[in-house]
Amino acid sequence: MSGADMPPDTEFSMTLWLDSDGTVRGHIAIPMGTGEIEGTYDEASGIVEGTITTEQGDTFDFRMTITGESFTMTASFGGMDVELTGTRTTIGVDDETKAEAGEDEPVEIVEIDIEDFERRAIQLPIPSGNFGQLAVNNKNQLIYARFSQDGLPEIMLFDITDDKKKQKTVAKGVGGFEISADGKKLITLRDNGASIQNAAAGATGKNVVTRGMFTTIEPREEWEQMFVEAWRLERDFLYVDNMHGVDWPAVREQYSKMLSDCVTRDDLSFVIREMISEINIGHAYYFGGDVEDQPSVSVGMLGVNWELADGAYRIKDICEGAAWDVDARNPLRSPGIDIAEGEYLLAVNGVEVDTSRSPWAAFQGMAGQTITITVSESPVLDENARDVVIEPMGSEGNLRYRQWIEANRAYVDEQTDGQVGYIYVPDTGVNGQTNLVRQYFGQIDKKALIIDERWNGGGQIPTRFIELLNRPITNYWARRDSKDFKWPPDAHHGPKCMLINGLAGSGGDLFPFLFKQAGLGPLIGTRTWGGLVGISGNPGLIDGGGVTVPTFGFYEKDGTWGIEGHGVDPDVLVVDDPALLALGQDPQLDAAIAVMLDEIERNPYVPPLRPSPPDRSGMGIIDVDR
Q: Structure pTM?
């Protein structure tokens, strides 16, 4: 394919159907989009003429000349001519097509032999990768999505009867699909549109035209259905069937009377939230729905604390993490940027900063953009002012988070003369595991460790976290040319403690519970949140909203319920006074430092002395070395 505004040798695919009256219909797919073909065929001349309608609704004319198995085609639109050439082949023809042609297929009876089916499983000769959505079409061919980190997803097909044992492409740039019940058709989503195609290699799709498709929704009828659906989800999926002793039918009756007073979708959300709260349980959340969104504008952030001084905004502090926090670099600390604390911000992109507004007002819409700021050591625009090109961030969250961790680590290090390490674990998901590991191995040689899990947001069950912190020593290794070392090398055996508070919950409840159960050290702070039931997914509501249903609850080894609704109690109670925190003080952290210094004094980890070199001059070894 070639044209005035198209790259040369652009590939395309086209499917045409010829009716007995000479009518031509079909579909064309090019990298820029797809279109539907309508026209007529003159057998004597071999010419097809007609129109192509794009998925955007634009229509243009074409003329095609067919010669044997080849064709040439000219399409005109917007004053541009596009030349296409190709060869004719038969692709993706399924049994439905044969049926349309009058070819009946026999009905096949399928019998499944369940017994010993595992031993009949074989490994398919498909290159390893990231796969999803396995399905089988009507020809017993495997269809699946294949994903790669550096390319577009694809829908692939593998035919076990194919002698070449090669996977074939069904659709490119698509990772999700649904297959019809008879296995003959696929529907895929691309660019907010749906396409239907044969479930076969090489098939092209036909857009699902949604123009003119409208429906009328009666909000009150839909709200009633969603209210009942939310009630049923809790009834059917809650981890215990007694609904925590609540008369659940009576709850439905009580709250359903409020539906007639709901005026907006937000009113319905309020009613559903209040209803599910009657169960008195954590993790029973409500979210989403067909509610209005408000517009937002990005704000460029420099990661600084500002102060208004001498009629201009001055950089009081530049926020930054530790030297090794490569994921938390302040844009003002980028190579080549020479801006210091105490300097004034005078202009942004040549516009003077208005001090009657907040300093962030000057950076609206500039997140991630290359901009110029004017700074100076004096609060006025004069010959000493200079322009600096920077790229503001969209958020300071991670930067300030890393700065807070590093400030705590440095404070603990200073207060203990380097004897105690500090590790912050923000949650029990992948992020929490990453933070635990990255901080743990950097401080594994400390005599004691403070594990801070305050404000822990939960996530997964933190069994692996405890295994990392509780690895027993198996032996020691002696070396002549360096220090002896313990095994495993990734184990810490000095005193430990954990900081907890009331805003740590879910996995943040279980983490300190397991820490205490393993005898790793005291818990310091205040009682945790007390929400230790699990959610594992359930159907949503019809308009995109949803409720979560706690599907598995925690009970202890002695056969009693625990933690849910109460939390994990500290061994050393220390209130995290917000007033003191606002002043830069942290009484819980100070208490943990005191406890760890005392533990180092009373119960330090002391490795055994290295034995004398063994004597192997005779037969056998001495009893003590056996």
A: 0.74
